[in-house]
């Protein structure tokens, strides 16, 4: 009986140990699986990070390359910006122009020059600040309206005998133009042609001129010497308004003098007694000296 109890206790102990061992083994199995699972997740994450890093590097390289290409394009654009300014072209049906870096604008060919509405319409407008000298070659027949308007650094102009007309505002506001020789073929001086050319001190008007347009020399405050040839018949409004002459001789052939054509302080008008010049002087309170 005693031996039977011992055997029973032994069996129970063996069974209990077996259960404990099974539990331990099961726990170890779960822990291994969890570790393996974590390792798998960690590996996957590392691989994903590495792949993303590679993609980021590629994107960065592409962005850098694109930026370099854009910078190169911008640089090329900047380099070509100066090429937009033309250094030669046409200014009439048979007239051409060339600008050189010494500041000289040369016009050559034959026929009439184009008229321009504004100074910005001039084909050489990109060089306004760099033109010091203008040379018009023999063969050109005219100087167009607004042709050289507002060239505030222009100092000298050569006009050939082939030119017979000078357009309105052709030299308007050319502040530094000190002298100009007009050829004998010119028959008229347009309105505002030399207006506000404050550098002009003297001017010879050719005998061929028959009319002087309104405001033609207005604002030429330093113009102290100017002649009016015998062929002139008309002097329009304000033609010499604001000029610096102290004396002016108006020929007997002038039959029309416009409003305020002369208003220089201290001016004396010289002319024939009973002429249009005397009448104008009397009506405007200007001293008159009969010749």
Topology readout:
Layout: H1 2-81, E1 88-92, E2 95-99, E3 104-109, E4 133-136, E5 142-143, E6 156-158, E7 165-166, E8 188-189, E9 202-203, E10 211-212, E11 225-226, E12 234-235, E13 247-249, E14 256-257, E15 268-271, H2 276-283, E16 288-290
Parallel strand pairs: 3-4, 4-6, 5-7, 7-8, 8-10, 9-11, 10-12, 12-14, 13-15, 15-16
Antiparallel strand pairs: 1-2, 2-3
What is the CA–CA distance across the termini?
178 Å
User: Count of helical segments?
Assistant: 2
- Report the mean per-residue pLDDT as an integer: 80
Instruction: Identify low-pLDDT runs.
Output: 1-56, 66-84
Dominant shape? elongated
CATH superfamily of the domain at 178-291: Ribonuclease Inhibitor
Radius of gyration: 48 Å
Question: What do you see in this structure?
Answer:
The N and C termini lie far apart (178 Å). The longest helix is centred in the first third of the chain and has 80 residues, at 2-81. It is built from 2 helices and 16 strands. Among the domains are: 2-82; 178-291, Leucine-rich repeat, LRR (right-handed beta-alpha superhelix), CATH 3.80.10.10. The chain has 291 residues and is of the alpha/beta class. The protein has a 6-stranded parallel beta sheet, covered by helices on one side. Strands 1-2-3-4-6 form a 5-stranded mixed beta sheet, with no helix packed on it. A 3-stranded parallel beta sheet has the order 13-15-16, with helices on one face. Helices cover 30% and strands 17% of the residues.
